[in-house]
Amino acid sequence: MRRHHMNNPYISRELFDFFRELRTHNRREWFIEHKERYEQQVRRPLQLFIMDFEQSLRGISTHFRADPRPQGGSLFRIHRDVRFSPDKSPYKTHAGIQFRHEQGGNVHAPGFYLHLEPGNVFAAVGIWRPDSRALRGIRDAIVADPATWLQAVSDAQFAASYRLGGDSLKRPPRDYDPGHPLIEELKRKDFIASAPLSEEEASAPDFLERYARLSGAAKPFMRFLTRSLDLPW
Fold this sequence. Notes:
By secondary structure, the protein is an alpha+beta fold. 45% of the residues lie in helices and 13% in strands.
């Protein structure tokens, strides 16, 4: 056993190995046969990560939740929703953790996210595919206070770790001045930023602290989005 993951009770090389194998054997029979591995190497350690992250999260904002419950908590289900997908593979080949706003009620509220997938590990923050009302709220907040938005996205700690991403409209949104100096920001359909990580970093002994620092670095960005939706920060 490698020494570094003996010191990380949450994320191990075995977690990534499990998902690599699941990618090859994405069938119910295989998963049932290896369910205990999933419990011991993925689900239980990540529930512990969620519990232990709560204190750090409260230091960023007291209005976001670290919920270790196995159903409906911060850890996404491993089962895929295949109803409308041409891909009928029953299981996700990654683990996703979302720390949501207490009033969010769904994944489209601002949140802190961690994605653990072989060859694709990242931390993300923000709001993905906000509904039209939320989108208008964010755009109006940028128009009303462009200086605070620019300060949030150019904050030294944030800019050193994160890159803004997501989709944008091809044309300026209706009801907004096409000549606005921040028109490219107003064209965004997603207000998300991500920070790439490696499997080695995620399984290092100090990863909980590292993820806490990364989440803390997104504070100005998350504060802006949360307040623009009239939610308490």
